[in-house]
Amino acid sequence: MGRPRILILGGTSEARLLAEALAARDNCDVLLSLAGRTEKPAVQPVPVRIGGFGGAAALADFLRAGEYDLLIDATHPFAEQISANAAFAAQTTGIAAIALRRPEWQRLPDDRWREVQSIPAAIEALGPSPRHVFLATGRQGAHHAEAAPQHSYLIRSVDPVEPPLALANVDYVIDRGPFSLEGECALLRQHEIDVIIAKNSGGAVTYAKIEAARLLGIEVVMVARAPVSKVTAVESVEAALAVIDHLFPPAMNRGV
């Protein structure tokens, strides 16, 4: 057979690292698809398309038209809709598919976690008394804070929150990880944070805030992940590469 064609649904550091590894091998054709939610995405090592597909059926049509051999869902663990679309498209087309999902963070003995199922539930869990909240869930869910205006919020995101929230006490930080433990401790102290709302995204890039909360004795309201889709999941780039080698042994993709 010829060179395998692989579509990666990306937007994570793992997607970038996988694309880099495949580009270095140079034995397959890779397209990396980004949703376009970040205004200035990082430079990628393979060809990139930006924007949605228009739904699960449209993604299936794209896979067929491009004659892809493998679909890799390496989106954010909380990008639930695109992951559902990917599972549907793979099943509909019969194309091989895997999901690259970094492991969840695990609670350690000194962590003060309260687990909830959604950002609205996390806002409600803050209670009625005013608190200093580090809302570290990105700009997509920041508007839920308007349901509890009695609190003071610190909101960090890669891009600005638009429109700004209708809140009396809110500060914004525009920044992109990785973040250091020292920097996160300083940020929490500066804003007198007494509770953090975070998604259980896993990975090292944003884990420092969880370490800082543990060190400073700060409560974390942790938004749990939704159930994993029906697509076979792997937890590392190395595991994804092993699956690719199994599906397309090197002797098969030398470009006859």
Short description:
By secondary structure, this protein is an alpha/beta fold.
Instruction: Please indicate the count of domains.
Output: 2
Under CATH, the homologous superfamily of the largest domain reads NAD(P)-binding Rossmann-like Domain
Q: Under the CATH scheme, which class of the largest domain?
A: Alpha Beta
The main β sheet shows up as: 6 strands, parallel
Approximately what portion of the residues adopt beta-strand conformation?
Answer: 15-25%
Pathway: Cofactor biosynthesis; adenosylcobalamin biosynthesis
Organism: Rhizobium vallis
Protein name: Cobalt-precorrin-6A reductase
Keywords: Cobalamin biosynthesis, Oxidoreductase
Describe the fold and architecture:
The protein starts with a strand and ends in a 9-residue tail after the last helix. Helix 1 packs across helix 7 (237-247) and helix 5 packs across helix 6 (208-216). 29% of the residues lie in helices and 22% in strands. A six-stranded parallel beta sheet has the order 3-2-1-4-5-12, with helices on both faces. Strands 6-11-10-7-8-9 form a six-stranded parallel beta sheet. Strand 1 (5-9), helix 1 and strand 2 (29-34) form a beta-alpha-beta unit. The chain is built from seven helices and twelve strands.
